[in-house]
């Protein structure tokens, strides 16, 4: 990132000043109003000698500060430099203008900096705050830190700590033992947003304060608090255990592997109190199986908490068509004609239900006036223990086309089924009478909400496939899906996914005159990357109406400049943007010049792998209600770099699928099917230009480099639009090959600001949970999404 001020900046264009010398720490600020996100680099002079260079990216601690308030600087000036010299001055680096406020030596500390310390604090995740505080007037003093919590009544002091630990940021000073680690009280891990202010024992706020955080109860300490029903320090033994488990939580991730699912299920999947329900539940016993299989299923019905007079069953054929209803259409019609019937629940022979399944599903339908409700499921192992959990996302029609996660553990309201049969008689008389046709009819004619219960209410038999992608393809499902897709967009066609015949791909149709797509590719030099990207767009992308816009962000390399001139002869538009790097601002500016109805944000380190990638993404985007579409991105070694984004991982967001090869199925086969996500990466993202502009584009002020795509996606979803990730558009992405890693203090500071803005804006949403990610799955950054089971799970409340 280029942060030095260019030579042509004049004094009147820069705002800034030295504000004073506190001990041997020099304070000031510098700001360029023309580029408010630029963090200027400042040279510090003692008389005519440059003695230090510092970046102006600290909190100015002033409500009236220019820009976002992060244009301050503090730099240590060695005391020998202050002797026998006349003046301290500062200028913008690389021959830029001098700042105001020259300080004549010896200098008195101004009142605004009285007792000002050089200090920093940051949130490292969970309940831990870290930082350092150093008193330049008393270098050996260990500063006390006070933590204040913002409440409705005001600021409440909740914790004290002493800055007396070794810290590497202070190695250049006389003493370095001025760091601190603060473990916040357990009560802050309640899933709510808390604002904390940190100040010294002299009332001076620390740079980086206040901090907003939202922490869910996680880890072994959470288990202790939940099991005891008390705060851990109320009893001596609890205090001892809490101390031991605090150390354990530091060493171990706040998640558990799927290998302990049986114990996890016993701990967290307990039946809730039964609610009074009216109406009957009809269980459809379907599929092939032995007499013993059928007996096991029927036995689980006799064990239900729901009164026996509210439970009905209907045995369907056990022939080669597992889900056929053809033998019993009249019996089913008779049941549906009974106004006392409340819902229908399918049950495969050999599978069984826990005792609280029927009343819980029936209560969910009634409470939410839902057309259907569905729950999670697992499998018997060889010893009858719990294994192989299918912990499902909230309702996602895009995912339903690819894989049937819905049937095991679902309950469809009788009203929705009656409406579906009427709809099918008018629009789908050619469909076979089977469960999948009924389900497709319910979805097509649905007018009510859909409820996901994040509870295991269905147990698959030990002989059932361990995962959905391992099942045999059902010949009756494909026609039902084809019919449903064509109800949404006439002309849709279906194929099986290569290597996974149980999974389905929908090819959504394009109109006779496909919309023009403007693909925006920002670059600065990096000729090898951008040439590969643009040549792939030009020559290896099968799409008829394409505009390629390369945004040159101040390239200096002669070969790159020559190529940029040449590529325009091939129809590529080259726009010059000679400004500091700001990914969001570059794209926002280029969108204004784009001529297409659809915008594609493309990183310059993207490489094309197959020609129909853009057709696939456009087809998804043109579906009703879809706001943006993202692709599956692979690292050059063919491992998955981006398989969608999960919100709330470690309080922020994380890419999914990073442990998968491109051919791996992923958890429940999710690496191989299109599905909806809360966010997708802007490294390859398609959106209608109208929607991009209507939602204000990427936030260039708060997120110049990172989190701008996640923030934009969440704003799209706030307006009611859905986002789709598809593996059928797969590209190579050499992530950060162009802009590099966050491996410098300046980049780290910028990344920290972006994280802070994201937490402040979206922490409440993160606390609610990502609808496309199960609350029982790990939100631990060390394991990543789908890396294990949450310990303990986040609130297992119904998701509508």
How would you describe the overall organization of this protein?
This protein is an alpha+beta fold and 800 residues long. It folds into four domains: 103 residues, Immunoglobulin-like (Sandwich); 97 residues, Immunoglobulin-like (Sandwich); 233 residues, Spore Coat Polysaccharide Biosynthesis Protein SpsA, Chain A (Alpha-Beta Complex); 274 residues, Spore Coat Polysaccharide Biosynthesis Protein SpsA, Chain A (Alpha-Beta Complex). Helix content is 25%, strand content 27%. The protein has 18 helices and 37 strands. Strands 25, 26, 27, 28, 29, 30, 31, 34, 35 and 36 form a ten-stranded mixed beta sheet that branches. Strands 16, 17, 18, 19, 20, 21 and 22 form a seven-stranded mixed beta sheet that branches. It is globular.
Pick out its properties.
7-stranded mixed β-sheet, Spore Coat Polysaccharide Biosynthesis Protein SpsA, Chain A, 37 strands, 25% helix, Immunoglobulin-like, 800 residues, 4 domains, alpha+beta, 10-stranded mixed β-sheet
């Amino acid at each position: 990132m280029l942060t030095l001020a260019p030579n042509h900046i004049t004094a009147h264009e820069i705002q800034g000043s030295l504000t004073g010398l506190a001990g041997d720490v020099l304070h000031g600020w510098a700001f360029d109003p023309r580029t408010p996100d630029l963090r200027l680099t400042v040279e510090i002079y003692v008389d005519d000698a440059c003695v230090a260079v510092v970046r102006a990216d600290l909190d100015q601690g002033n409500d009236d500060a220019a820009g976002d308030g992060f244009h301050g600087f503090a730099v240590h000036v060695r005391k020998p430099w202050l002797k026998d010299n006349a003046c301290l001055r500062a200028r913008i680096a690389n021959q830029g203008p001098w700042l105001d406020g020259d300080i004549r030596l010896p200098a008195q500390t101004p009142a605004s900096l009285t007792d000002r310390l050089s200090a920093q604090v940051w949130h490292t995740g969970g309940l831990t705050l870290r930082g350092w505080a150093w008193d330049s007037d008393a270098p050996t003093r260990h500063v006390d830190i006070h933590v204040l919590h913002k409440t409705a009544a005001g600021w409440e002091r909740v914790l004290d700590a002493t800055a007396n630990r070794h810290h590497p940021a202070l190695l250049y000073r006389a003493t370095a033992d001025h760091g601190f680690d603060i473990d916040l009280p357990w009560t802050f891990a309640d899933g709510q947003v808390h604002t904390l202010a940190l100040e010294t024992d002299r009332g001076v706020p620390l740079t980086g304060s206040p901090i907003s955080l939202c922490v869910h109860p996680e880890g072994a300490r959470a288990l202790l608090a939940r099991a005891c029903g008390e705060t851990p320090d109320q009893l001596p033994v609890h205090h001892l255990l809490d101390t031991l488990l605090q150390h354990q939580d530091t060493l171990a991730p706040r998640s558990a592997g799927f290998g302990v699912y049986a114990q996890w299920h016993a701990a967290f999947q307990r039946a809730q109190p039964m609610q009074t329900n009216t109406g009957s539940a009809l269980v459809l016993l379907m599929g092939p199986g032995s007499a013993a299989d059928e007996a096991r299923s029927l036995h689980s019905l006799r064990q239900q908490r729901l009164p026996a007079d509210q439970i009905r069953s209907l045995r369907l054929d056990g022939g080669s068509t597992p889900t056929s209803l053809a033998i019993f259409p009249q019996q089913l019609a008779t049941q549906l004609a009974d106004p006392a019937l409340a819902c229908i629940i399918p049950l495969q022979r050999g599978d069984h239900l826990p005792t609280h399944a029927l009343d819980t599903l029936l209560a969910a339908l009634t409470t939410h006036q839902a057309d259907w409700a569905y729950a999670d499921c697992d499998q018997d192992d060889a010893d009858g223990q719990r294994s192989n959990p299918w912990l499902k996302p909230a309702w996602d029609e895009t995912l339903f086309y690819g894989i049937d996660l819905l049937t095991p553990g679902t309950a469809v309201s009788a009203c929705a089924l009656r409406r579906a049969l009427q709809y099918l008689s008018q629009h789908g008389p050619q469909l076979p009478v089977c469960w999948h046709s009924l389900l497709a009819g319910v979805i097509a004619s649905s007018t009510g909400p859909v409820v996901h219960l994040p509870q295991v209410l269905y147990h698959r038999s030990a002989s059932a496939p361990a995962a959905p992608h391992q099942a045999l393809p059902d010949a009756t499902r494909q026609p039902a899906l084809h019919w449903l897709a064509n109800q949404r967009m006439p002309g849709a066609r279906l194929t099986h996914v290569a290597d996974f015949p149980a999974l389905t791909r929908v090819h959504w149709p394009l109109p006779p005159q496909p919309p023009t797509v403007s693909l925006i590719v920002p670059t600065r030099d990096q000729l090898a990357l951008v040439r590969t990207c643009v040549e792939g767009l030009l020559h290896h992308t099968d799409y008829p109406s394409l505009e390629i816009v390369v945004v040159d962000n101040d390239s200096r390399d002669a070969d790159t400049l020559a190529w940029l001139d040449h590529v325009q002869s091939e129809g590529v538009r080259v726009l010059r943007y000679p400004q500091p790097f700001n990914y969001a601002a570059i794209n926002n500016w280029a969108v204004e010049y784009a001529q297409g109805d659809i915008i594609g944000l493309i990183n310059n380190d993207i490489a094309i792998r197959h020609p129909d990638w853009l057709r696939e993404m456009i087809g998804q985007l043109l579906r009703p209600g879809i706001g943006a579409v993202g692709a599956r991105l692979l690292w050059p070694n063919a491992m998955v770099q981006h398989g969608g984004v999960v919100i709330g991982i470690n309080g922020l967001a994380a890419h999914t699928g990073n442990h998968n090869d491109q051919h791996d199925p992923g958890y429940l086969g999710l690496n191989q099917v299109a599905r909806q996500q809360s966010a997708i990466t802007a490294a390859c993202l398609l959106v209608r230009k109208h929607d991009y502009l209507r939602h204000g584009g990427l936030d260039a002020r708060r997120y110049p480099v990172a989190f701008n795509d996640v923030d934009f996606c969440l704003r799209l979803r706030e307006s009611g639009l859905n986002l789709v990730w598809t593996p059928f558009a797969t590209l190579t992405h050499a992530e950060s090959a162009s802009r590099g890693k966050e491996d410098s203090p300046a980049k780290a500071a910028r990344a920290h600001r972006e994280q802070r803005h994201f937490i402040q804006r979206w922490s409440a949403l993160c606390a609610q949970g990502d609808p496309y990610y199960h609350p029982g799955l790990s939100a631990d950054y060390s394991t990543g999404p789908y890396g294990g089971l949450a310990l303990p799970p986040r609130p297992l409340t119904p998701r509508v």
